[in-house]
UniProtKB/TrEMBL annotation:
Name listed for the protein in its UniProt record: 2-oxoisovalerate dehydrogenase subunit beta
Pfam families, A to Z: Transket_pyr (PF02779), Transketolase_C (PF02780)
Organism expressing this protein natively: Streptomyces virginiae
The keyword DNA damage appears for this protein: no
Keywords: Oxidoreductase, Thiamine pyrophosphate
Length: 326
């Protein structure tokens, strides 16, 4: 058993290193991923150790980066593409939606595109416009794409490797505000299924379901609620497409209440689909409507206002109180 405490950033770096070591067909591509090691240093040292032909600094051209990755995947490679910031992905959206997501079906299953698109996402880093988006719903809506997000170092390490091994394209959202949060990583563990949710705190009165950066906020909310005698379960969804509805249902049947939390706007967010499905599945178990907590349906604000925009402890606890009041 090889357990090491590391940050999410370090876990991602170690995961990429292991993938490069295990399979010579794994390539890393993106803006400044080589000599600089990425703006968040996720690829630090990899070009030095594996060479410029496997860790490739690209031009500032997201559509070209993803298009090239598609071509490489068609030739048997497993490209891992880094989009430098969430708001930079949109020039590549056409390639991702019309080519990457569709090729397997278009070829009647004969062609696979094992491409991972890594996207640092979310706010709370005091950044300028286009650097704090949460566009996961836009990708989760597209058939043919897997969409996942780790919330801790262990999941960052293992989920990225599972994404690289997948024969389907995976959009891998990395919670950038959590990059320096540390946790234990067992590098010899047997990981669970990539798209399975996980109960990270047990409770009996209500379920908080979240993914990525909001899992930590929900754990803090559950701890605060416990001081008032409320038993709150926290469910780390881990995957936005496919969603582990069975896991959510099992939790809700125990607690009878559900609040879904994400940074992205509440309007048409992942929480909307979860609320609808769980209402259908758990109608006779629910003692309150499924509530949602998220960002506002507005452009991401300047850094001075992001604390008001982002769902924090108080907004989550308010939803807990509203649900328990029914």
């Amino acid at each position: 058993m090889a357990v090491e405490k590391m940050s999410i950033a370090k876990a991602l770096n170690e995961s990429l290193r292991k993938a490069l070591e295990q399979d010579p067909k794994v390539l890393i591509m993106g803006e400044d991923v080589g000599k600089l090691g990425g703006v968040f240093r996720i690829t630090d040292g990899l070009q030095k150790d594996f060479g410029e032909e496997r860790v490739i600094d690209t031009p500032l051209a997201e559509s070209g980066i993803v298009g090239t990755a598609i071509g490489l995947a068609l030739r048997g490679y497993r490209p891992v593409v880094e989009i430098q910031f969430d708001g930079f992905v949109f020039p590549a959206y056409d390639q991702i939606v019309t080519q990457l997501a569709k090729m397997h079906a278009r070829a009647l299953g004969k062609i696979k595109l094992p491409v991972v698109v890594r996207i640092p996402y979310g706010g709370a880093i005091g950044a300028v416009e286009h650097h704090s988006e949460s566009p996961e719903t836009l990708f989760a809506h597209v058939a043919g794409l897997k969409v996942v997000s780790p919330s801790n170092a262990s999941d960052a390490y293992w989920m990225l490797q599972q994404a690289i091994l997948s024969d389907d394209p995976v959009i891998f959202f990395e919670p950038k505000r959590r990059y320096w949060d540390k946790g234990e990583v067992d590098t010899e563990a047997i990981p669970g299924e990539l798209h399975k949710s996980r109960v990270v705190r047990e409770g009996s009165d209500l379920t908080l379901a979240a993914y990525g950066p909001m899992v930590k906020v929900c754990l803090e909310a559950a701890a605060a609620a416990a001081e008032e005698g409320k038993s709150v379960e926290v469910l780390d969804l881990r995957s936005m497409s496919p969603v582990d509805f069975d896991g959510i249902q099992a939790s809700v049947e125990r607690t009878r209440r559900l609040v879904v939390v994400h940074e992205a706007p509440v309007f048409l967010g992942v929480g909307s689909e979860i609320a609808a499905r769980i209402t259908e599945r758990c109608f006779y178990h629910l003692e309150a409507p499924v509530l949602r907590v998220g960002g506002f349906h507005a452009p991401y604000p300047p850094a001075r206002l992001e604390d008001e925009y982002l769902p924090g402890l108080d907004r989550v606890l308010d939803a807990v109180d509203r649900s328990l009041a029914y």
